[in-house]
Amino acid sequence: MTLPQIRFEIKHSLLSIVIFGLSVIPIIYLIRADNISLLPNTAFNIILGIIILTLWNEIHFYLVHRMMHSKFFMKRVHYIHHRSITPTVYSVYSFHWLEAVLLSTVPLTIAPFIPFSIMAIFIYPLASILLNYAGHCNYRFGHGKGESWMLFGTWHNQHHSKARKNYGFALNFMDKLFQKLKS
């Protein structure tokens, strides 16, 4: 990892973080316009909401990420993230601004249809950040063999080096589903 790579990643990450932060504005607007229903902030609703949002993120991320690997988006948008051949903690949010906008819409694309507690919506980004850092920290969790769900850092490293598989966020169930559909 070189200093120019770190600077490049930090520059793009800072812009992406601002975009992710601003993504709460449409949520607040839709809540105030009564287009998003909220559940009470009970422990059950908060935990269930974070779990649902995390699972929805897997689907949402996979679809956006597969689109980013089309020839058009890879050449113009997603190449920024893949400049980090070896993922680092600085590459976590090193995206083109358009990719950051698309990836920041996880709660916005589900909250109008499924009620959540407001705490789940606002705590969810912390879970996302922790999983994202784990996937980019260049550390192999678990025992390193087999189908352990703890291999997400390994899967993401493989994705950055080969860019042909492991399109999921932290889990690989969407990759497996689409492999089965292909065969």
How many beta-strand elements?
Answer: 2
Low-confidence stretches: none
Portion of residues within helices: 55-70%
The arrangement of helices and strands along the chain is HHEHHHHEHHH
SS strand fraction:
under 5%
Return the structural class: mainly alpha
Shape: globular
Strands of the largest sheet, in order across it?
1-2
Number of domains: 1
Largest sheet: 2 strands, parallel
Radius of gyration: 17 Å
Summarize model confidence as the mean pLDDT. Answer: 85
Count of discrete alpha- or pi-helical segments spanning 4 or more residues: 9
The end-to-end distance, rounded to whole angstroms, is 39 Å
Task: Supply the key terms.
183 residues, mainly alpha
Question: How would you concisely characterize the structure shown here?
Answer:
The protein has 183 residues and is mainly alpha-helical.
Describe the structure.
By secondary structure, the protein is mainly alpha-helical. It has one domain (3-182). It contains nine helices and two strands; from the N terminus they run ααβααααβααα. The protein has helices spanning 3-22, 24-32, 43-68, 71-82, 97-103, 106-110, 118-136, 152-162, 173-182; strands at 38-39, 116-117. The chain has a two-stranded parallel sheet. The radius of gyration is 17 Å and the shape is globular. The N and C termini lie far apart (39 Å).
Ordered list of secondary-structure elements with their pairings:
Blueprint: H1 3-22, H2 24-32, E1 38-39, H3 43-68, H4 71-82, H5 97-103, H6 106-110, E2 116-117, H7 118-136, H8 152-162, H9 173-182
Parallel strand pairs: 1-2
Helix pairs in contact: 1-5, 3-7
